[in-house]
Design brief:
mainly alpha, 0% strand
């Protein structure tokens, strides 16, 4: 399985969780959840140093890393309804970037075309019952 698929799927789930958590949890609990998702995003984006994943995915990973760092800073600096909406926006941005990454991964995957060749059996194969 490709690492791009795994990291983009994980980021999609983490971003969607952040969007839902921003509206479901109280601000003190959400601050910690936002910090955790930001750390996960930075760690996932750090994969660009471990593998060569293509220019486009490396660019997306850089953007995701910067957004993750911003999410960490925002979770520690802001408070109240500001952090709720910044967390919501960060989560939505994580989902959008991950879906872009998944789409680009799908578009770059080579498609294998299977074709069937219809042959008539030789007389010897027909006598032997081989088709």
């Amino acid at each position: 399985m490709n690492s791009r698929y795994l990291t983009n799927t994980t980021l999609t789930v983490a971003g969607a969780f952040l969007v839902v958590a921003s509206q479901a949890f109280a601000v003190p609990a959400f601050e910690w959840l936002m910090l955790g998702v930001g750390v996960v995003a930075v760690l996932l984006a750090g994969g660009i140093f471990l593998t060569s994943r293509g220019l486009v995915q490396n660019s997306l990973d850089g953007i995701i890393g910067m957004l993750g760092a911003w999410t960490i800073v925002a979770s520690l600096v802001f408070a109240g309804s500001t952090i709720t909406w910044l967390g919501f926006a960060s989560g939505a941005a994580f989902v959008a970037l991950a879906l872009i990454g998944l789409t680009l991964h799908e578009l770059s995957t080579e498609r294998v075309v299977h074709s069937f060749e219809v042959r008539t059996p030789s007389p010897e194969q027909e006598l032997a019952g081989i088709r």
